[in-house]
Every structure is written in C-alpha cells, then in structure tokens.
Amino acid sequence: MADSPTIDAVFHNAVIVTMDDAFRVLQDGAVAVAGDRIAAVGPSADVLAAFPCAVQTLDLGGRIVLPGLVNTHVHTSQQLARGIADDVDLMTWLHGRIWPYESHMTEEDSYASTLLCGIELIRSGVTCFAEAGGQFVSEMARAVELLGFRACLTKSTMDCGDGLPPNWSCCSTDDCIQSQKELYEKHHNTADGRIRIWFGLRQIMNATDRLLLETRDIAQKLNTGIHMHIAEIPYENQLILRTKGIDHGTVTYLDKIDFLRSNLLAAHSVWLNVPEIGFFSKAGVKVSHCPASAMRMLGFAPIREMLDSGVCVSLGTDGAPSNNRMSIGGLGGGESIYMVHGPLT
C-alpha cells in the first residue's frame, strides 16, 4: 500500500464488497481513490494510515461500497417513450408503438434519450451497459463519453420481415453489414477504451440467413460481440418452426445454421426447451435476463435450468417502455449504497 502524492479521497468505515477472486467482504473497510483510479482497498485502519495526506477523507458510517453494476440489455433510444406502449402484446408493442416511434427519431433525439437513460442508470448504480440496438450509434457514443460510462453499443439491424417502418424497410443486407463495420471503425475502443462496438441483430423474424451468418463471421473476425433478441415469445418460435421446417424454434434453427457462438449475448431467451438450453451451454452463449419486462409481456425464462446447465445469465432492464423503470435491483430509491468502477482489488 505505497503512498501516493495524488490521493484525492479515502472513503472509510464502510462495508466493502470487493468482488475479487476470493469474494472478500471487509466489514470495516476503506477505498483510496487517485483521479479516476482505485489506489488501494483494505481495512480502514490500514488505508487511513497509508494515506494520511489525502485531499479528502470521508466517513461512510457503515454504508456499503461495491463495484458498479452492469446492465446487459438497455435500449437507450427508448427512454423518451416511457408509457407509450403499456398493456399490449409484444408484436403490437413493436409494430404499432415502438418502431414507429424509433423510426421518427432524429440524431439529437437519440443523444438526449441516451443522456436521460444514462442518468437514470447511474442513479441505480450502473456504470457499464450493453446497448440492445438503436439507429444513431454516434449520438449514443457522444452521450456515453460525456457521462463516463463503459458501454457496448450496437446498431439495430433488420433486412426483412413484417412491421418495418418505410424508412427502415429499404435497408438491404449490404447496408446493414456496411453500416456496422463503419461504426466499429469509427467508435470501437474510443473514450479511453470505455466504448466498444458490437454488432446488433434485432430478432430472427427480421433477419435473413445471410445477415445472420455474415454478422457472425465479421464479429468473430473483429473479436467483438453480437447482441440479439432471441426466443422472446411463443409466436416467434411458431413462425420459425413453420417457415424453417425444424422441430422447435429460434434457438434450434440458430444451432442448425451454426450461428451460436460464445460472443453472442442473447436477450430474454424465455421460450427455450431443454435441448436448446444445451445448445446455448455447448456454444458458450450468454443470456441477458430482464425480469421486469419478462413478467410484463414475455413470460418466465428457465433461469434455474440455464444456470444448472452452465449458461452464463446476467441481468438487464430492457428499455423504459418495457417496464417504466431502469433500475436493475431496486437500488434507485435512495438506499445507502456507493458504486465504484471495476473489481475492488
């Protein structure tokens, strides 16, 4: 715990949830901060003794300090649409409410929406999020850089299917692929490495096989991720069963065409059967479970079965119109919890 001439603050007398390899919890712990970096973590007495000349020393009075939360499924572009799609089924929600709204957004709308979404995320303890896909990724990136987040940003791509607004239906497969490659080249690893660009596929009902497979290949070549809504509702599985000639639904088909990879983040994944959970586990697919939106209009995902099969399951909030709040764990109501970036080691 070597001294430093630029220790800006020591936060002490706190319960420190480190999330280090040993999952230590320090009952009377302290964190020393230098600039935007954690300089030290340890028992309060040790840290206070090591940094007696810190610019600021703050007694947290037994409050909890833990790493910032990661929200793995967010629609920043939907923040301004809170309340416009209540009490309808998913297909009406998409085709009749959300897509018409999103398709009429401007770049400035996207920037303002991302700022507002980000502020709410910060308030609930989130310091990193995975964007599920909007249209103006450059404006998302501008807001993320200003707010200080870490984020995996994606553009929502669709090249076929029902319900597309007129200004989206003209987007070809080549357009979808090229626009994402350009966004990757422009924004990936920017903001001091805090912004990553992933590839986005809205859902299988609006993606050709070519879009799916070329997205798979390019994302793998660039060593980046793919974010996609998968198996949200029974209708999706029924449509794929009927049109693709398989014995179940989306995940079965994605396995058949060799799409599933360990860089795939599958949002929701509510309607999976046991073999499909096995496909996810074998391929190393990650799942973002969004409890609030699932309870509202999707159904109950087989989370216990996924975990028992070794599938990595994380938490997301979805967009504001899906649940009218952006808090992962109810931490936005003024509880005495402080959040710090990264593992506390």
From TrEMBL:
Residues 64-327 form the Amidohydrolase-related domain. The keyword Zinc applies. The keyword Zinc applies. Keywords: Hydrolase, Metal-binding, Zinc. Residues 29-52 form the Aminodeoxyfutalosine deaminase/Imidazolonepropionase-like composite domain. It comes from the Eukaryota. Pfam families: Amidohydro_1, HUTI_composite_bact. GO terms for molecular function: hydrolase activity, acting on carbon-nitrogen (but not peptide) bonds; metal ion binding. This is Amidohydrolase-related domain-containing protein. InterPro entries: Amidohydro-rel, Metal-dep_hydrolase_composite, Metal_Hydrolase, MQNX/HUTI_composite_N, MTA/SAH_deaminase.
